[in-house]
Amino acid sequence: MLTRTLARLSWVDLILRVFQIIAAIVIVIGIVNVFRSNTYTSNQWATLVFAGLAQGSIYALIALGYTLVYGILLMINFAHGEVYMAGAFSTVFLAGYFSNTGFLQSSPILAIIIMIIFAAAVSTAIALLLERIAYRPLRNAPRLIPLITAIGASFTLQYTFRGLYGAEFKSYPQVPALSGTVNVIGFDVPLVQLVVFFAAVGLMIALYLYVERTKSGKAMRAVSEDKDVARLMGIDIDRVIVTTFALGGALAGAAGVFNGLFRPQGVFFFMGFFPGIKAFTAAVLGGIGNIPGAMIGGLMLGLIESLGPNSIVEGLGIPSANQLKDAIAFSVLVLILIYRPQGIFGERLAEKKA
Amino acid sequence: MSKRLLLVVSLLVFASIILAACGGASLECTDAIGCVEVAPGEPITLAYMLTTTGATAFLGEDSLGGIEIVIADRGEFLGHEIELIGEDSLCSAEGGQTAATKVAANESVVGVIGTNCSGAATAALDTISSAGLTMCSPSNTAPALTDDGPDGTWQPGYFRAAHNDLFQGRIAADFAYDILGARSAATIHDGSPYADQLQSVFAGRFAELGGTVTFQGAVNVGDTDMRPVLTSAAADSPDVLYFPIFEPEGPFIVAQSSEIEGLEDTTLMGADGLLVASFAGNSGANAEGMFLSGPFLSGSAYDDFLAKWADQIGGVPPSGFHAFAADCTNMLLDAIEATAQVGGDGTVLVGQQAVRDAMAATSGFAGLSGNLSCTPTGDCATGEALGVFEITSAEINDGNWPPEAIWTP
Amino acid sequence: MEEKTYTWRDLINYGLLGSVVTLYFGMIGMLELFDERILITPFLSLGDVLLFSGVIGIVFFAVNKFASSLNEAFKVGAVVGAVSAIFPIVLSFIATSELIAEQFVIRDVFVSVTDRLVEIYNFGLEPIVGSLVLIVAFAIVGVLTALFIKTDPKIERPLLMGIVLTLGIGLFSENVTQILGNLPAGIGRSISRLLFTNKALTIVSALIIFLLTAGITYWRMRRPTTGESRGFNFSFEDISNRGLNRAQMIQLAIVAVVLLLLPWMVGSFLSQVLFNVGLFILMGLGLNIVVGYAGLLDLGYVAFFAFGAYTMGILTTATSLNPGLGLNFWTALPFAILIAVMFGIILGVPVLNMRGDYLAIVTLGFGEIIRILALSDWLAPVMGGAQGVLKIAKPVFFGVEMGSPETMYYMVLAGSLLVGFVAIRLRDSRLGRQWMAMREDEDVAEAMGINLVQTKLMAFAIGAAFSGLAGAIFSARVNNIFPHSFNLLISINALSLIIVGGIGSIPGVIIGALVLVGLPELLREFSEYRLLMYGILLIVMMLVRPEGFIPAEIYKRELRADEETETEIEAQVTSS
Fold first, then answer.
1. Is C505 left (phi over 0), alpha (psi -120 to 50) or beta?
2. Same domain, yes or no, for C105 and C134?
3. Nearest Cα to Cα of residue A99 among A187, A7, A176, A2
4. How many beta-carbon pairs under 8 angstroms link A with C?
5. Contacts of A263 in chain B (CB under 8 A)
6. Contacts of C125 by beta carbon, 8 Å cutoff, 6+ apart
């Protein structure tokens, strides 16, 4: 019996291995073709790389929210994309006000910091509300139940904000201080992309240190290891969970403002849906529940999206390569998970998952 | 279906005979496919089927505003109030079909404004048409909808004030080739039937004129990073980049195009999906000098309309199809007004075939979107009402809207 | 009931909560829109109901929590009600204040704060007078609610039923009219003309409905209960496993006749709604096997729906745009299911080693990949790309073209019955027990000798088959398919409905589909707030009944988290 099972398992493994090899060959052929035909200049590649990194750092910030909550509660906070939207959408009005009054032009750094704090506050408030109403009462329910309330909360938040602010598309104002380019290793990179990238990485490092070094970070790790033992050790579980949601919310709010600086257009009630799914993908890619995993997963996803269509798909002679952008991202996810079913870095905050 | 229709018709006839016998008004339905009777004191019911939820909700909101303003303007109509009832038809086939079934089941509906998306219309038409209704769309542009050939999906009772992609794509290509003097062009669509069709008509016409189409690509709805597709388009440095898509993807393309090496001398062109008051401001400085094709929105009538919008609905229209919605509503109401029988007691009898015929006979209707004349298969905007607009810093920084039309075919 | 202590602060907190709710409905524009919808002419609009619903809800909680006596209830109701008026009043003062308007136009940010909204909050009066009226009105409503809760159930129940039914008929007046419209010889039309003027109940008809309902409820409550439960008392299990007794046979026959005649009783729109519900029942039954039985969280279930629909479309389309083969529906149907099954297995293989949430995101990815491919220019020559597949054949059944919702209802009914039967048989089969064992613990199941690969792939394949069938029927009904129809929301909806219905439960799927697919269809007139209500419904449902409407036995036990469940399943598995 056991040998038969094993024989079948290896049969599956064989198929998967063959599948991986084919995929790898296809990817290599595509990349080689593109570079041989010399379609794009190195400047164009550089543009894609830097934009991908900036985009990736925004994904990573949102992904951290998923990962933190997952690490503690083992649940997918499906509405996290809406938490991000709440901050970004609300702050667009403040940003417009700052721009009209000239504050954004006269003291950009202060203005942006206020915007980030405001967005983080709104997002945190929404995240806490979500936790209180939709998740806390169901903490001991089977795991699919909070997933459904999360989906419900996602719809509710989208249409609440649509009702509040309308269905129009808004944009963040241009920040003169951040326009212009900087020369990095011989390439002209838009300043705003660098600022966003480094600010996001800075926030991530701060979060990492918070979780690793501080007392409440230690409590978070303890809760994610074992809730019951943590409670016995005198840790207030509720408080830890609230802190976790607040941290995730604040990072998502900051991500909203960074997104607004980097790519000012397209602020509306539905703006959180796709980034939410992408960030979730990024978190899984890196190993959900794992903080460095979410960062690397986010950056990787940003780069794959930015470089994938032009490098892999186009080389295979497929028309409208860019349409398949998300398909590439998900395919890479599948390929990696086949090889490493727990993501690149595995799960670290908590050990065993169902 | 036809049996049920027959039943409905005969019931109506029966009811009207009874009413005629006791009410004193002597209205008789002689229409080939039936009548809608509006009793005294009851409102005349128009239905809309628009996409009011989801990522395309702005389209529905835009059209709905246009309809509401016209209805408010009209006030009392044939001695009755106009009641607007609505269905969310989403931007999908199944949404269109369900909405259509609901509208068709309501016997008091005299006409339909909708749908926003061509996919919804294709699925809705069967039901709407066999119910004897007349439907006018503010934003369907798919050529198949007004094509009665083997590949077409036209059905009696369908009209639209929006431009058939065949006209608009062609005019955009003519403008790019003749006026801008472009000899190479790249196109980007967003996977909507509208954009896909427009870019393909544009590319076909552009090549026919002697130009080279260097790249035909696409983005996805929901994309925010347009650099990959712009980089692909930039490979051959085209003279013109045509992207007949919507917000928010359109502004992303405009804003990000300046970062891409190879697009420095490329002229940007969009279509009526982007002819929106918020577009220029959202796109920022890069939009300066770009062109949009679309309905000839200008003059005092349109300014009045915008003023009413600000007053009744607030803000500015969120998309570029509100003028078509307003024109559809007016044309439909005109057709009803011209054909309806009004009894002595105020009863109104609307013949359904008569409304269709009157719609089809519309000619030289001076609408917000230009002069409209309907063809037998429902195309009311035949291309003369199109214009090309140039975005200048007045639109971007000072909120001036609509921009000045610089060319009409 | 024990005496509960509370402070003024508690009451004020509750009042503030009610105030936030009332403000929320206004700020998102719901009040203004609902105010136009009259339920009972001329005095009661849906907006009025919504305006007071916050107060009623919060007073309900407060009274249940704090008040033990009638006197207490009176006080709690009045205080909480009056405090609930505070934020709306603040808003109307801000919105009408010229001082603030000079600095900042509130409508530039909050688009729903219109003059009309302020008018609603102020009952069209001057701000100060209006505010007082609002406070008094809320306090009165609070007191009434409190008294209502504290009254004898013998009076409370009939009143409540009367109110709910009257408002319900007012709300669903269009559907009531449609159903009445199917009565012969125009009787229904006359009745609905008597009942409604312009979608709203008249005072007289509202009173009659209220009195009738309340009276009947009161009368039925006074009758001594015989102990025998009324209504249907057979379950799906009875049909499949045991014989039925005479009474059950009769009940079953009635159900069958009603199901057969339903489309002709309710009219075309409600038939269309039933059709949509039926499609989701098909999908729900399939997903129930994957998620409910086998415990594999699949968020990309729409992929198989798409395969079914596209196969049907491509094989039967009549246009020259696509490589349509012009087959008829019945010839194409087996292919549609077969292709779906094939892809169920193909997409199942890569995820064999993945568990839980990794599985969820990968299947979500598969769903998106399929949609993206269907939309892509690359595959457009085959799949139609953005232009979709047009002119798909309508099924012809013994010479009758099934082009109307009424006829297609039978198609989906037949499909549901077939699939429901298969699902029940599968659940009780050896395979079904293997699935459940796997769901409980994969490692243990494997150790028991269950072939995980085969068992998982069977779940994916059968789930895909059901979904493929749904897709094929969908395709034949809409006749034109576009890639946008196959989005993530379908997967989410299917998942939500099986969980709201009660995971693993077959009757639960039916109830879930009726609530989550049927109800939003009936609420179409609230367009943009439909999905908002859907979201709130999902949250409330899960908070109130986390186990779902009709929980499967096994999950019910699990929710109580007792130890027996696991041993029992293991026993089941080993015995098979």
1. beta
2. yes
3. A176
4. 182
5. 224-225, 252, 255-256
6. C133
CATH of B166-296+386-407, one of 3.30.1540.10, 1.10.10.10, 2.60.120.10, 3.40.50.2300: 3.40.50.2300
Residue C136 CB: number of other CB atoms within 10 A? 13
Q: CA B7 → CA A42, B18, B34, C404, distances in Å?
A: 72, 16, 11, 16
Helix extents (H) in B131-181 = 165-174
Residue type, C435: W
Q: B113: left (phi > 0), else alpha (psi -120 to 50), else beta?
A: beta
Cβ(A126)–Cβ(A157) under 8 Å? yes
Indicate the residue among C121, C150, C179 that finishes a domain. C150
Residues of B in contact with C181 (CB under 8 A): 105, 107
Which residues numbered 512-531 in C keep a CB inside 8 Å of some CB on B? 521, 524-525, 527-528, 530-531
User: Exposed, middle or buried, A137 (CB in 10 Å: 0-12/13-18/19+)?
Assistant: middle
Which of B65-74, B87-96, B226-235, C351-360 shows the highest mean pLDDT? B65-74
* Residues A285, A297 contacting (CB under 8 angstroms): yes
Which two tokens mark B156? 């009696």
Which of B31, B77, B11, B35 is closest to B350 using CA atoms? B35
Q: What are phi and psi of B406, to 5 degrees?
A: -100, -10
Per-residue DSSP letter, B244: -
Q: Which amino acid is at B67?
A: I
Q: What is the mean pLDDT of residues C199-209?
A: 87
Nearest residue of C to residue A341, measured between CA atoms: C354
φ, ψ (nearest 5 deg) of residue C45: -105, 165
Q: Tokens 């999905």, residue?
A: C531
Taking a C-beta distance cutoff of 8 angstroms, is the pair C544, C536 a contact? no
Inter-axis angle of helices C329-348 and C452-478, to 10 degrees? 140
pLDDT band at C570 (very low <50, low <70, confident <90, very high): very low
Half-sphere exposure of C225 (CA within 13 A, CB side): 5
How far apart are the C-alpha atoms of B92 and B95, rounded to whole Å?
A: 5
Query: Would the CB atoms of C453 and A142 count as touching at under 8 Å?
Result: no
Which amino acid does the sequence have at C355? R
Contact present, A24 and B241 (Cβ < 8 Å): no
Are C312 and C333 a contacting pair, CB within 8 Å? yes
Q: Checking DSSP bridges between strand A181-184 and strand A187-190, what pairing results, if any?
A: antiparallel
Q: C556-569 pLDDT, tens per residue?
A: 666 555 444 444 44
* β-bridge pairing B348-351 and B35-38: antiparallel
The verdict on a CB contact (< 8 Å) between C377 and B218 is yes
Structural domain containing residue C178: 152-222
Cα–Cα distance measured from residue C548 to residue C266, given in angstroms and rounded to the nearest whole number: 28
Domain that holds residue A132: 48-272
What residues of chain A, 320 to 339, have a C-beta less than 8 Å from chain C?
320, 323-324, 326-327, 330-331, 333-334, 337-338
Peptide bond just before C42 cis, omega within 30 deg: yes
Which residues on chain B are in Cβ contact (under 8 Å) with A316? none
Burial class (CB in 10 A: 0-12, 13-18, 19+), A178: middle
The DSSP secondary-structure symbol of C29 reads T
Give the lowest-confidence range in A1-15, B78-92, B178-192, C186-200: A1-15
With CA atoms as reference, report the closest residue to B238 among B209, B266, B205: B266
Q: How far apart are CA C480 and CA C317, in angstroms?
A: 9
Domain B2-164+302-309+318-381 fold: Rossmann fold (3.40.50)
Vertex C129 angle, CA C127 and C133, to 5°:
110
Which pLDDT tens digit goes with each residue over B23-82? Answer: 444 678 888 888 898 888 888 999 999 988 777 778 888 899 999 999 999 988 888 999
Helix (H) or strand (E) holding C103: helix C98-103
